Amino acid sequence: MFQELLNVIKNYETIIIHRHKNPDGDAMGSQIGLKHILLENFPEKTVYVVGDSAGHYGFMDDSVMDEVADEVYADALAIVLDTSAKHLISDERYTTAKATGRMDHHIFVEKICDTEVVDTSYESCCGLVTAFALACGLKLSPVSAKALYTGMVTDSGRFRYDSTTDQTFRLAAALMEQKFDTNDIYRKLYADDFARIRLKAQFVLKIKLTDCNVAYIYTTKEEMAELNVDTFTVSRGMVGTMSDIKGVDIWVNFTETEQGVLCELRSSKYNINPIAVKYGGGGHAKASGACVASKEIAMQMLGDLDAMTK
Q: Is the whole-model pTM more than 0.85?
């Protein structure tokens, strides 16, 4: 599975690594991790990372994206990470590369690249990249291991989610053979300042329940403007405020943006991925996302989620 992608990598002197828009820890971790694996093992190659800003994950080492001229793609290999669908990829220029490859752990939606490694048995794309490195005999470095471990932690919910397996811990143990400070990761990931704690309290008060106990939060563009925070902080950052409510098996966070209504779907019991796919999104069985055109469509999605629990 991994050897074909490794052979492609060996054939290109320039490699440009992409991932999905509005990156989470797994997208950033796999991108930075793969970059430094390639630099460690193929120092003669030029490796770039591209996409929108790291946002909340700007604390990660080497998280600033590179500026790459269009003409560089002509003789380059573009690798897409942690992305199930074309429209989710940050920086569409990957299509202009001479060759393309993908590594992903999401439920398959569509073929994106020439060479693909898609395996849903991994809790994170970082886990998949780690397995790739180990299977191919590639050396890790402290920078790559720290980035990959960060992504594993975030996508497994600190190893709490049921996507976590014995494989997860074996790969995490392999990463920890490199010297990096796990406390530094956790402090930056989970330490909240007082303003953020107050913000979480505001969102707890916004929680509503449907007739079938689907929890949801809806934030309008006007409310976003008043909060004066970035979209990620509200959309991905606040969905977890509903995760531990007794009797709630599905929860969803709706956030209005200029591009549409971002929908973060989560469940502790049901496979909500088909509903995300129905509305143009994707992801995992119990953690998916989508972006819809209007509040009306978002409420239709909520109705579908409500019907799932009946």
A: no
